[in-house]
Amino acid sequence: MNIFGFHYRLERKGIGLVLAIIAVASIGGIVEIAPLFTIHQTVETDPNMRVYTPLELAGRNIYIREGCYACHSQMIRTLRDEVERYGPYSLAVESKYDHPMLWGSKRTGPDLARIGGKYSDEWHVRHLYNPRDVVAQSIMPAYDWLMTAQLRIEDLGEHLEAQRDVGVPYTDEMIAHATADAAAQIAPDTPAAEDLKKRYGAATIIHSFADKPAQVTEMDALVAYLQILGRLTDAAGKPVAQTGETQASGTQVGEAQAGEAQ
Amino acid sequence: MTIYHDTLVWLAKSAGLFYLMGLSLIVLIYTYWPSNKKRFNEAAETIFQDEDKPCR
Amino acid sequence: MIGQLTKGERQLALVILIFLGLVGLAMAAGGRHDPLGAHGALVIVCALAGLMAVIAAYFDPEPDPERLDRYYDDPSKIGIVIAMIWVVVGLFVGDWVAWLLVNPDLTFDAGWASFGRLRPVHTTSVIFGFGGNALIATSFYVMQRTSRARLPDQLSPLFVLFGYNVFCLLAVSGYLIGVTQSKEYAEPEWYADIWLVIVWVTYLVLYLRTLARRKEPHIYVANWYYLAFIVVVAMLHIVNNLAVPVSLGHAKSYSLFAGVQDAMTEWWYGHNAVAFFLTAGFLGMMYYYLPVRAGRPIFSYRLSIISFWGITFFYMWAGSHHLHYTALPQWVQTLGMTFSLMLLVPSWASATNALLTLNGAWHKVRDDATLRFMMVAAVFYGLTTFEGSFMAIRPVNSLSHYTDWTIGHVHAGALGWVAMITFGSIYASVPWLWKRESMYSPRLVEAHFWLALTGTIVYVMAMWNSGIVQGLMWRTYDDSGTLAYSFLDTVIAMHPYYIARAVGGLLFLIGALIGCYNIWMTIRGVPSAAPRVATDTAAESPVAVPAGAAAFRSGE
Ligand code: HEM
Prior knowledge:
The complex is a heterotrimer of chains A (about 260), B (about 55) and C (about 550).
Chain A: H1 12-33, H2 54-65, H3 80-86, H4 121-129, H5 131-134, H6 156-165, H7 172-176, H8 178-184, H9 191-200, H10 218-228, H11 255-259
Helix pairs in contact in A: 2-10, 4-10
Chain B: H1 5-32, H2 37-46
Chain C: H1 7-30, H2 35-56, H3 74-102, H4 115-147, H5 155-176, H6 190-212, H7 221-240, E1 243-245, E2 253-255, H8 259-294, H9 301-314, H10 330-342, H11 344-357, H12 362-367, H13 369-391, H14 394-400, H15 404-433, H16 442-474, H17 487-524, H18 537-540, H19 546-553
Antiparallel strand pairs in C: 1-2
The structure holds protoporphyrin IX containing FE (HEM).
């Protein structure tokens, strides 16, 4: 007895209905999505854009794991009040290496697209440890256990490889040294740290983020990620008139550049 | 062959529109085709069967 | 349950379960340094439980051939019970999460119990656990009745039902141990996604095989909606979940798409999950249960066909309204907005069709809380789709997006439409399925109805207010031309609304608990405890229920 087999002739009407549903439904999706597969022709390019270091990528994965995206967006819209509150509006190129994107849909907390560099590492650690120590009326959860949780770094090479499979330009060298690079990013002034800088750029922030130099914690990774947000490329800081002419609040800024950016 | 973004956008906008109109027309014709009327009226009543068992 | 399987089916079930167990073993071994290992263990446990159930009943007598003269309702019965379990879990976690926004310390000091991990537990439990199981259970019921044909075999419906619940378990337990793709409504990781594809294809084939056996020449429209739900969800699921796992020993994967492409794919999926999971499937439910319960055929069968194709067609284009004013090309945004506005036509056609069906049966709506559940659901469906189209207008969206207004909109749909139509359909099916005269206590149905309605209204009102207040505060400037409020000011301003929302959610949860009790007592066949009070006879007067009444007559 084979339940998956077609014991009964699937007559034409039922199949026809299914095919009609597929046709009617999929054409909309294809038409809408197909142009986006050529979108690299429209996305701004920035040859200097760098990829996430292994530690930052690990931090990003913690951001995903903890569901920070449920309360924080990473997408500054082209509206005057948003630009004034959070900084230049987000460009498509900025999330070019984001598999998956973390634009978010709800702002229970503020947008984080440009949080990098806004606060010190110490502030972030204290804030994540218990937000109410820093902002008395915050409703953000406390993440104190990240301070003691040891980061799993030995498999970061495999992570980078998978990233390369989906299109992020990690080099063989980056993949081979992923674990060492993650450890080096919390050990400033070591030879390993110099290598890291050679691979990912001189501006790479190297610091014992959680101030526990003996051990790479999940807190280190998360803060390293937060501090790089909005700083992988400076495309958005380029002299596009960010606030444009004064417009009523809630209206758009520089729609042309953002929408149809060439 | 490179497929240009603008071409696809143009296609989406034009072909999409014709598709929309064509499809609406087909659906309307199907539903209002006179000989289908009886079938639909019967279908609406079929859920009121008096025996709760399969018809064999 | 197993007794209903033929010998061949029992053997096949064993084979499938052993295979599942081996897959679990491979996952546990390959992922022993990873959360994947824990999921391997979970799969093994599920497989073992199944094996034990089959083996225990393996030598029971085969089902009698007479069974072919009856519909096969075991899967529907089990599905309804499972759906009720999920709804209690989902609403409980939802209300917990709501209280966490009131006081963030109302939780345990551990990763699994933090807001970001619990929120997807809530959404998955209610959408997939409750909604999905209710859809599967009712679709089995409806497709057999409308086709006048029995399900083609005994095993595949059980495979679909239990396989689907294994997926739900993997999903929900995954979030708690930190396994998620972070894609909204598509959080489960790659292995769970692959499993769902297998289950879903079996579901589609099962549906088509049943239709192929039908004795009615025309396929009743409810089936069209159920089919669209099955087919399109399969398409969406596969495309949106394309990803490359880190390795076969890792739970983690990286999505194939990045940035703006990923955003578009995700919301193409996200919005159509709303359309085909939360709308089309439940419209299928409505087009069967509402006419039957009201004892009147659908007002206009033609209108139901037109709205069907309208919904199938328009929804696909509307997803980009989730990405207004973002880095998505503007023409896609405009397209999404236009189609969202056009969607109002088929949506309101369905809602109107449902309400006009009740013309001439309003006395039943007054007396019968089950029918009233369905009526209110149609009203909320109309309201939510109107609001959705409104929110898709770009300037409106500039205010509503990122705020609680969206949450209010979602829950007008989720509580008012999805949950209400489901409760109505479940209250209608339970007595029919278990061959009871009526629910154990119609008065408890009445109580559930009022709790659910009050809860929904409190919830939605609170979120409308908080959303609009928050949106306006974000964009308020003072006289000197600087932003008037800090972000924290807006967080503080939300506090009272969050309390109101959590209270509304609590009412809704209590209603569902009452529903569980009532269903349980009906299944056990306990005669109604409450003496028939003279003033309340209206609520208990028997309602004309053709199929159900017939079911009772045929009394097995
Ligand atoms: C005409 C039909 C509808 C339209 C045009 C529509 C439109 C929208 C819009 C504009 C948003 C807000 C997007 C944002 O700013 O974040 C949204 C969100 C949402 N809607 Fe609807 N809606 C419709 C029907 C429904 C129904 C019936 C349900 C539930 C059964 C529903 C469930 C949702 C969900 C789950 C979200 C949440 C997205 C998030 O997490 O941000 N919608 N919809």
